[in-house]
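Check my protein:
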Amino acid sequence: MHDMATKIIYFTVNGRPERAEFPVDCPAQDVKDLFRAAAEAGPHDILKLYNPRGNIVNISLSLEPNSPNSRYKLEVVAADCNSAEIAGALGFDLFSMEKRLQGLEKKILMEASETPAVVYEMKKQVDSFREKLESVEHLSWLGLFKDLSDGTHKPSPFYHKRTLHKTRKECEHVREKFLQMSSLQVSEEVRQFLKTPTFDNWQWEDAEIMVLLQVMYTDLDFIAAFNIEPEVLQQFLFEVYRRYNNIPFHNFKHCFCVTQMMYGLIWLTDLKSKMDSIDLLIMLTSAVCHDLDHTGYNNAYQINARTELALRYNDISPLENHHCAVAFEILEKTESNIFRNVSMDQYKRIREGIIKCILATDMTRHNEILNKFKSILPAFDFNNRDHRDVLMMILIKVSDISNEARPMEVAEPWLDCLLQEFYNQSDVEKLEGLPVTPFMDRDKVTKPSSQTGFIRFVLLPLFIELANLFPCLEQHIIDPVRKALDYYTEMEKALEREKQNRAQSENAAKSKETTVGPQSPADSHTDAGHEASQPDAQSTV
């Protein structure tokens, strides 16, 4: 019989049934290493587990225990293809050798009380061989054999970070991981999943997200078409990561979600056959950069608090202007300028397009842009430059507010993050004596009430107009949004019922108090006065 403090997970790897057993309080990295060993994967390969429903789940201590009849599936979703070639060229596979040795040691331990000396000797030889290999100067790039993990693990979506800006240590750690992973070949299954609105961002760490962004630029043929050097793209993506702040919602993961939705829309609507490659490049890069250096306080706050940004941009879309400026600050550096090999005319078009797209994400311009799109829709022409420009603005707007088009388990944590940021702003507004943004006030807004109006009056009208141009989007983004509206409408009704029940219970309790025990005329008079005032009190609940 197993100790209650032990967790057992049944899974398959390459069709082979396996079983992982680990203490519930062991370090998170040990769990990952256990699965890495089972998959015989390299230290920087990306592993993911699929649950029996086919959804990706994170390899962590919170894995749900299962039975041999409902196994998880373990897959290496991004692997270093060079490693097999290197091993073949050298005539050995050191990593597999180590894993086989670990397996042998495990079997011996099950049958014997202690590890025999011969196994220690073999381990010593393998370690010594690895040290020699890594010390050879011309093979030092074989980071494949180095284990640089430090036991850190992905935060939950509901994280509070100590500092607004990322620390140098934090950036360097992620940069190192990303560069180790940047040459990995991402599996075809994940590449296809990346093209759908159902993609789950919560199962990917920041370094892995950068690998996925790299895949998007590659699979849309931007690398070849615009002569983007891989190391320049990597530096650009790292600089972008660095300039997104540690805030609950407008962070690097949000940047990825917006970009991934834009990428999905490009594939779903077959824009590759309808628009120039340069326009697709503008849209994807605009999505990547659209919230750079966001501080978690919206334009209304910037203007009311007369912040440096509001003064600099004369109260005109201060945040969006700032996001653009930071994007071109990154692109001004040669080492991170992914457009450094395009012609002057192409660069001018790209710059104009990115500025137009990012400025379109200011929600105060929502009706203006939507009405413009509605007016051209009946005679929309992909050959008309003005029409294409408006469509590009609509696409980034849709991508920016598209969380509710995702599965509920992906979308709902994002709403919690957004409300966290909203409540924080309204708290600061109250403290500073500024006008309080109504839809951010924690005393007036609930989770469902924040969504029902937004979905009904902002999201759906926008999505429906886009689906009028691309009917295929009906099932992909409109159906899920309608389901989300139903979900939050029901939640709002349930909260209202609960509120009414609570008010009735309180009234009943107070009425009971007035009838208990003998009362003097004075008491009776006081309670009658209290009862008389009760309906007014109830009406303000």
About this structure: Strands lie at 6-13, 16-23, 46-50, 56-57, 72-79, 185-186. The radius of gyration is 28 Å. Confidence is low (pLDDT under 50) at residues 83-93, 132-163, 520-541.
